[in-house]
Amino acid sequence: MKIAFKLNEKPVMIDVDPMRRLLDIIREDFNLTGTKEGCGEGECGACTVLLNGKPVTSCLVNAVQLESAEVVTVEGVSETEIGQKLIACYDKTNAVQCGFCFPGFVVSSYYYLIHDGEPDLEKIKRALSGNICRCTGYTKIFEAVMMACELVGGQS
Amino acid sequence: MIVPQNLAELKSHLAHIEPETFFLAGGTDLNVQIRKGILQPSEIVFINRIPEMREIALQDGFISIGATATFMEMLESPIIGKHLPMLQTALQNFASPLLQSTATIGGNIANGSPTADVIPLLLVCDAKLELLSADGVRTVAGNDFYYGYKKNLLERGEIIYRVLIDQDAQQGRKFFYKKVASRKSLTISKASIAILSKWNSDRIESISIAAGSLNEYARRLPQTESLLTGKRRDEISDAILRETLSNEITPISDLRSDSDYRFEVFFNLLIRHIEDVTNG
Amino acid sequence: MKSPIRVDSHAKLTGITKYIDDYREDGMLEGAIFFSPVHAGKINKIIFPTAFDLTEFTLVFSGDIPGENIVPEPVSDQLFLVEQHIGYKGQPILGVAHPDRETVRSFVEGIKIEVDEFPALTATKAALDDAHNAFGREIVIDHGTHHDIDPMWIHTRSVYYTPHQEQAYLEPQGMIARFDAETRIMNIRGTMQCPYFVKSAVDQIMGSKIEGTIVQVAEGIGGAFGGKEDFPNIIAGVTALLSYRSGKPVKTILDRAVDIQVTTKRHPSRTEIESWLDPNDFTLRKLSVDYRLDAGFYQTLSPVVLARGVLHAGGCYKCDDIYVHGRLIRSNTPPNGAFRGFGAPQSLFAIESHMDDLAKKVGLNPLEFRRRNLFKSGDKMPTTQPVPENHIHDTLERLLDLSDYEAKAKDFAAYNSTHRLKKGIGLSLALHGGGYTGNGEKVLKSEIKVVIEKDATVKIYVINTEMGQGVQTTLAQCVAEELGHPLEKTIYMFPDTSKAPNSGPTVASRTIYIIGNLLRKLAREIRAEIGDTSLEEYIRQHPAEFPMERRAHFTPDESVVFDEETYKGTGYKDYSWAACAIEIAYDPDTWTVEPVKVWAVLDIGKVINHDVAIGQAIGGITQGIFWGLSEYFEKEGMGRMNGFTDYVLPTSLDAPEFVVEFIHTNSTVAKGLGEIPMDFPAAALRNAFLNASGKSINEIPLIPERIFREE
């Protein structure tokens, strides 16, 4: 099936099995390896990307769902101004450990920042509750996102 | 893969659906089941491009939720927020934000897992389901939809079209919902309970109770409801309530929990709701 | 002091860092391993699925192994690939490679075997309860004064159980092997903790067919926690064999469902404690600990886990008549392996739970009871090693201030008498020996290398991997600080066995404690050699000396002596200490425990990077809490618990609030940090539940079903 969509703001066209996973399309067909596979069943969030502006687990999205859609990966988020500010907060708080889950956290917290952005711990926890981190116990991730909310909150 | 672009196209495809055809909307259940080898579809119909099937609207005193509306759309819907806030309160920790954005209400109902979070909520609201086929739409009561483990009234060539809920379903009634699970998000329930109850001071005037994960399918508990109707807390015998409940919930032991625990936790939560209202 | 930003942070956040599955090579095949679907038996026939063209696949069996079919381990008893007899479900039987990942995985899923099945022992608790299942290594520590038991002494006997725990690194296991036919070198890259272990495994399986093995790590290692200590040896071995057979590079990434079922887990344990208290002051007069670990089917590294377990079994308490007996139990389940804490969390859970049980029995509060029995500097540990310092006392006192423990314990008692939902607070203490047990570091004799380039870049060559714990930053900090050189120009080089000497495995809380301190020493020597000038200036004056290479060996303190036979002497030269309090909420209607707030005070000596240390502490404590609360893995029903839907990890919404502090940080020695956070949370949680409900539950996790049953 031929499918046209936007990937990190660039129009692209693919010809694939309509059931092919968005995760594989991103990683293998476009060599954007920032998006990770942790479980393959939507339970860990390492493969989080934005699909039409909403965070999704790309391991459960099929090619057919991409027609005319906009997909933004961690590489795309890293190029936005708000994304860069957010990432700087993660840097400053030294939140990262093994890093495998972090592209997913960056995308989920970027969505929270632009969609809500209130520096409210309970809301932040809920916004990140689809992303599993095994290293950090989450505390420093909350700190980073809280810092980002205070920095860019309301800008969107 | 069949990709109807509108309702008319979908209907014409529904006229000749082959066995082992599956409908794909959000894909959060279907993809996992295909990957695990539980399902091997012969054909897939992608239904996410049909606007009528996605709408959340008020219509003739009913809230109408299209089958491919996502949980995120329900959580953000001002219509649901105004008329049926219980749905948003109860579903805010549904799965996870990453699945809320793609999982659909129709998918949750059609997959029909006994653990599905949304079904007990719909049942206590006396929701109706509109089923679409090539011949048109028929309406069934949510309470009649399931009749066994993952067994429902859908015939081949039929698909869930919309969910209808009386816009006043919550009005003047106390709402209680609890999902017992091993963590707070991304989790499959061990037991869940949804209650809508109407009170005349400390007396139960009417009560709707639905149980999830406690039978082969989520269901209402009519015997228990009629036992409790018209009673005050001090008129309810725990022994008789247990007895009645045991006719209506038949929990199993599995990987996630065991039957005795599931039964007792449900009993406690039902009592908790009654006592919480009684004690103000 | 402001912590420097982690060197690896930005590239990981932006998705630039390459993890093993992000590497690709031309003509690369995808590898997979077929694991036994039965617990025990004799293979008669392997049947391949007919829907595939067999000629497209490369297959390797035990008979294809040119070298030795034995995985090198402390006890080398494990096969790379089954020869005929299967000992456990999940045992590797053959390797397969094919150009397409999905194809190779569905091929492997379709493989069937015809087997004569044998009876199998898979029920963990039943296996642990019967001492007849003991095999292999047995350890006895018995150096106390043998007192005759006074009938007036208060005698207590309790049995404590802990379950399997999955490391659940977010990145599944994976390796790439590329055999270079010209040089006959086997090149391996992967996600691992111990590159030299992997090297010897590949050397062993390939034997004389190769000239040598070079092992490199991927830039990013997506978590390990012990889970990538020895299992990578098997994946690397089989993948190397596949590459040798096919003549192509082969990448094997375990699917999560496979990874979770076949890889090593934390050892389940059974610890039986008998204690005798003096009825006058409630001090411990005699203590006897029977400690058992379910090793699975092979011993592999379990004897070393056992050693650490028995050495920590007495906890932080004084008792001059202590007897510890440690045994391994054999079952038909996959070998268990390393997981943060390595035997100590199991034995400390038992002793810390027992302290609360005894306090309750004699009517003292848990704090007072601990104070009476806590050891002081100069008291003897079970091995006769003198307790080196009073830091556990300081750690506990600081914790009490920080948490307001005593006031909370009082308030909660009052609250609980009038509320349906209960609150509770629990204490626990821990010690953790840094580095390898006993003479281990003497034997390892780790070596490090530093190269200073002409442009004043300082390169650190060690083989200890960055798996999230921050060593890429903290090891560089150790060198930069001593050299007085900018951190940006002090570079940790990704481990590569062709370039870095063997600085030992990345395990046992040893990377900063042994390697960091060794790097510091070497950097000080270099600084002394170049005098007061800046490195750049020195290079200008002495250009011929550069690039300058310096190496150093770990030199053991000769006064540290340990007898491996009798377990007498210095078990560990330095100990880290910790005290913890956890507040919980308990809902008796649903029998659900929720951790609310955690206070922890740790003495790890000098702190290199405060942010990194806090991150390690909170991350480890979280793993410890949920081991005590909700994580468990039933190998008995293996095949059911095969993903993150069923093996339930804590989410952001489950995380409690944390207050963590380090004390005695002005010490000159940076001690071990990696593991101690795992040692105490489960007991503190269990003791908090006892405080909230009055009920002693001696088996974790505290799942509601267990609480309900035991009520």
Outline the secondary-structure elements:
The complex is a heterotrimer of chains A (156), B (280) and C (711).
Chain A: E1 2-7, E2 10-15, H1 22-29, E3 48-51, E4 54-57, E5 70-72, H2 74-77, H3 81-92, H4 102-115, H5 121-127, H6 139-152
Parallel strand pairs in A: 1-5
Antiparallel strand pairs in A: 1-2, 3-4, 3-5
Chain B: H1 7-14, E1 21-24, H2 30-35, E2 43-46, E3 56-59, E4 62-66, H3 71-76, H4 78-83, H5 85-91, H6 97-100, H7 105-111, H8 118-124, E5 128-133, E6 136-141, H9 142-145, E7 146-148, E8 151-152, E9 159-166, E10 174-180, E11 191-200, E12 203-212, E13 219-220, H10 222-228, H11 238-248, H12 259-278
Helix pairs in contact in B: 10-11
Chain C: H1 9-13, E1 29-35, E2 41-47, E3 58-60, E4 85-86, E5 92-98, H2 101-110, E6 112-117, H3 124-129, E7 134-141, E8 154-162, E9 174-180, E10 185-190, H4 195-206, E11 212-217, H5 231-246, E12 250-253, H6 256-262, E13 269-277, E14 284-296, H7 302-311, E15 322-330, H8 344-362, H9 366-373, H10 391-403, H11 405-416, E16 422-433, H12 440-444, E17 447-452, E18 458-461, H13 471-483, E19 490-492, H14 511-530, H15 535-541, E20 548-553, E21 562-563, E22 568-569, E23 575-587, E24 592-603, H16 610-629, E25 657-662, H17 676-679, H18 681-693, H19 704-710
Parallel strand pairs in C: 1-12, 10-11, 14-15, 18-19, 24-25
Antiparallel strand pairs in C: 1-5, 2-4, 2-6, 3-5, 7-15, 8-13, 9-10, 9-12, 13-14, 16-23, 17-18, 17-20, 21-22, 23-24
Helix pairs in contact in C: 4-5, 7-8, 8-9, 8-18, 13-14, 16-18
